[in-house]
């Protein structure tokens, strides 16, 4: 695991440990959502939709041979998409612009360990798990392609 990804994980861990009020987590996710720039509408194709999310979430990867860059955005749905967008932005805070090997070196249980899943609705929890699973799938694909 690289120092960069270790630092990102530690920053998120420290942030979550520092929450003294249960609402702090939601405020943090809303701030991430509001700060996230989204992505160009031309990238929003059905093949990039993350299944299982309460809202329509898109995750578009690009690989330059060294790192994976992700574009992510969220649209509408049955609930407030800001929480979903915040969850996506949190995932990108850790995984974006990292090598496939670095992505795969992170235990996906990290988010449970910091308490992210506490208080999430089952739909949001499943959607977030689907997002992380898709990130890992892209990393495995790009590792395989890089070996060719």
The shape is globular
SSE series: HHEEEHHHH
How much β-strand is present in the residues? Answer: 5-15%
Average pLDDT over all residues: 90
Describe the structure.
The protein is α+β, with helices and mostly antiparallel strands and 148 residues long. It is built from 6 helices and 3 strands, in the order ααβββαααα. Helix 1 runs antiparallel to helix 3 and helix 2 (23-35) packs across helix 3 (81-95). 29% of the residues are buried. The mean pLDDT is 90.
Kindly summarize this structure in a few lines.
With 148 residues, this protein is of the alpha+beta class. It has helices at 3-17, 23-35, 81-95, 100-105, 110-113, 122-147; strands at 49-50, 56-63, 68-75.
Task: Please describe the topology of this protein.
Blueprint: H1 3-17, H2 23-35, E1 49-50, E2 56-63, E3 68-75, H3 81-95, H4 100-105, H5 110-113, H6 122-147
Antiparallel strand pairs: 1-2, 2-3
Helix pairs in contact: 1-3, 2-3, 3-6
Supply database-style keywords:
148 residues; alpha+beta; 6 helices; 12% strand
